[in-house]
Amino acid sequence: MAQHSEHPASFWTLASVVPPLIAAGLFAFFLSFLPAVAAGEGLRHAVPWVPSMGVELSFFIDGLSLTFALLISGIGVLVMLFSGSYLAGHPQHARFSLYLVSFMLAMLGLVLADNLLALFVFWELTTITSFLLIGFNHDSKVSQRAALQALLVTGTGGLAMLAGFLMIGSVAGTMELSALRDMGDVLRDSPMYLPILILVLAGAFTKSAQFPFHFWLPNAMAAPTPVSAYLHSATMVKGGVYLLARMHPNLSGTDVWMWTLVIFGAFTTVFASVVALKQNDLKQTLAYTTLMALGALVLYLAAPGGYAITAMATFLVVHSLYKAALFLMIGCVDHATGTRDARRLGGLIRRMPVTGIAGGLAALSMAGMIPFIGFIGKELLYKGGLESPASVVIVTGAIFAASALMFAIAGVVAFKPFWGTDAHMPQLDRPIREAPLPMLAGPVVLGALGLYFGLDSHTLQVAVTDPIAGALLGDMEKGKDLHLWTGVNAALVLSILTFATGVVIYVFHKALRDRIDEAAARLISFDAAWDSFLAGMTRGAVAVTAQLQTGVLSRYLLVVFATITVVIGGTILLRGLDIGSPVLDGISYVHLVVFGLTIAGTLVAVATNSRIAAIAGLGVVGIGVALVFIQFGAPDVAITQILVEMLVVVLFSVAALRLPTLPPARPVSERTLHAAVSIGLGVVVAAVVIGVTSVPLDLNLTEYFEKNSYPIAHGKNIVNVILVDFRAFDTFGEISVVAVAAISAYALLKQRKPKGTS
Amino acid sequence: MNSLILTTATRLIVAILLVFSVFMLLRGHNEPGGGFIGGLIGATGFVMYAIACGTAEARAALRAAPEQIAMVGLGVAALAGLASALFADPLFTGQWLFLGASEGEKGLPLSTVLVFDIGVYLVVMGGILTLVFALEEEI
């Protein structure tokens, strides 16, 4: 991103100014809901969307969705201010702003949607905008790969989630979350509970990058810094956490739920903290600490306890504040020095005091120091862990390990670059200066908020944690109080132990880093495994295509016909369907002549070695069919049939001029196979026709058309009235197919090499 | 194909076929016929012309490119379907106007349904001619 600092451009452009204003307006709008929501109200607003299917576009604001909406729009303001300056002068700045605002709106839709289908649509919109933002530097191979990987992983999870939503809808009979909230028992007692849980968890775990789907998130750091700060730490990756929290009243409370979340959450949080320590790129470090936070949030959604949920809600806010601040701080440092390498940065406090202090505030909150909100968050995490119904040892142990590592990493990220030695700093030909004001606003405001909420935790409790407890547990009273000082207790002792361990880890972090590197080299890399998985899919597709699409028309037809024969014939045989016997009444000699003609045409087509004779034989078959239509009083169909037959014969004859005559002696095995498939298909189709005609015909529709064709549609030719009026939309689809088929064939014919070379 | 008889006969027959195709299109709502059949007959006329006199001459006689005719037809059909929105009816609801209608006299029926059928006619004719001309030019 160094090219932007060399060309200082004005912040005052539309692409810079409009996005923060939109976000600020939305933030103020959501803030106006706070008094009602803090009082425990849930507000619902619905507009019809697909009325014929009973789908409404409905929004629901309660403690959970409002907290997310405020985080998304509030952090959105700061991130957009930052990016307005960070990307000023970039040729595609306007495009970036558009993506970022689109993402924000999609994310707001996700957390506010009351209808599960609407939630899914917004969920996928965040996936798509995330794809566009990760791949913003679209000429870089790294960005391309990271964007595609994120899209495939989260998109696949999203589809699984959609299947889960549809099952929820069919079990509960409603897709409105506000109605589902009281139907937890219906879902839990349903035999579909397990499949629903697995599918919904697949969506949540991929979006929130839980192990083993974690690998896409560090790669997503290929995006510009504001994107990492906004999507991949503060908002989008929390979509999965939001979903789990939303589903908490419906799906939680079973052992499967509890243990799945505990195991995945605990493993992710410890694994990510350890890997975070070994990163040299500070952005990568922060990416892994985000994984740690996501793991912790999932871990605390496992249990229904008051402390667990309060801890989850507090930590959600704590993490969003300090992580966005730190990402933006690193953006400022990168902007000024051109590097993010932890091993090189040092001594920046003299050059960038404001950035250093803002980052320091955020880091202190991350480390969980008194009197920051991070301390309260960590205390609550310990209290929640100590009363965990799943396993006190696993939950508390995981949080202890992760918190100690977070303490050390906070030092690496925000202490060392500013207060450490500047011996390894890169030499620059320009002075290192503070970033411009719009870029500084984010770290300063967010860092200060971490301190403010620590001192005034009551505000946070009234505005956020109690309403979230109300939304998840059904009772705001179940939320625990937020206090800086709760006396000497187990949580405080654990906190002190955490600090001690954290200091030790920080002191030895360089040695530890090498050890982790060695250990990591021996483990399998999920990132590499993903590549082999994709390559395997491609190879599989190529192999299947090579088998099925040989380019030989008769092979295609053979496959299609054999499939029809096996599927329909198999169904008839396996189900033991009684197809009845053919109705032979009223057959006259005229019919027999037509049948004879048709059969003769078939025999000619089969026996001849001349293509023209075969086509003419098939033409006779077509005319025979047209005669049948005339016999049974369908002149329109008969006329169409005759005209189509004529054109087909003409077309084939034109094409046949270029083709060699059929080889006189094809292998017996091939001919036997073709004969077997043809006869099988004939038998199956005949069986279906006999079966269909032996069932009494439902004449409802026929009578409706006969009765209404003239009075309503002013036409006496029922076939035509159906085509252009009763079923006009179907016809429109058909003529679209005709047009598209003609143009595709035209394109295929015209792109071939000139005559003689092919 | 170089045949004097075919060329001479074709000039006559093609004209008749084209008039006949429009006749089939227009009478389709009450008698056998309609856009599909009309389009097929019209296409047959130009296919014959192409066989007798060559594709280049058939294209010249057609004036517009067949793929454009198909696209215009698709657009005409879509507009006929959308027109119902002006009258606050669901999509593709037929709208009728009886010109000069009076007591006991039905008048001349005009409708979006006919416009839709004209769209079908153009798509079928244009689509088939796109294919046939391209094929013939390949040979």
From TrEMBL, chain A:
InterPro entries: CPA3_Na-H_Antiporter_A, MrpA_C/MbhD, MrpA_C/MbhE, ND/Mrp_TM, Proton_antipo_N
Biological process terms in GO annotation: monoatomic ion transport
Keywords from the named record: Antiport, Cell membrane, Ion transport, Membrane, Transmembrane, Transmembrane helix, Transport
Subcellular location: Cell membrane; Membrane
GO molecular function: antiporter activity
GO cellular component: plasma membrane
Transmembrane segments: 12-39, 59-84, 96-113, 119-136, 148-172, 192-217, 229-245, 257-277, 286-303, 309-333, 354-377, 389-415, 435-455, 482-508, 556-574, 586-606, 613-632, 638-660, 672-695, 731-749
Membrane topology qualifier: Multi-pass membrane protein
Job description of the protein: NDH-1 shuttles electrons from NADH, via FMN and iron-sulfur (Fe-S) centers, to quinones in the respiratory chain. The immediate electron acceptor for the enzyme in this species is believed to be ubiquinone. Couples the redox reaction to proton translocation (for every two electrons transferred, four hydrogen ions are translocated across the cytoplasmic membrane), and thus conserves the redox energy in a proton gradient.
Identification of the protein by name: Na(+)/H(+) antiporter subunit A
Provenance organism: Meridianimarinicoccus roseus
TrEMBL record, chain B:
Cellular localization per UniProt: Cell membrane
UniProt KW Cell membrane keyword: yes
InterPro entries registered for this protein in UniProt: CPA3_antiporter_subunitB, MnhB
Domain Na+/H+ antiporter MnhB subunit-related protein intervals: 5-130
Membrane topology category: Multi-pass membrane protein
Predominant location category: membrane
Segments crossing the lipid bilayer: 12-29, 35-56, 68-88, 108-135
Classification via Pfam families: MnhB
Keyword Manganese in record: no
GO CC field: plasma membrane
Record keywords: Cell membrane, Membrane, Transmembrane, Transmembrane helix
Family statement drawn from the similarity comment of this UniProt entry: Belongs to the CPA3 antiporters (TC 2.A.63) subunit B family.
Protein name: Na+/H+ antiporter subunit B
Organism (species): Meridianimarinicoccus roseus
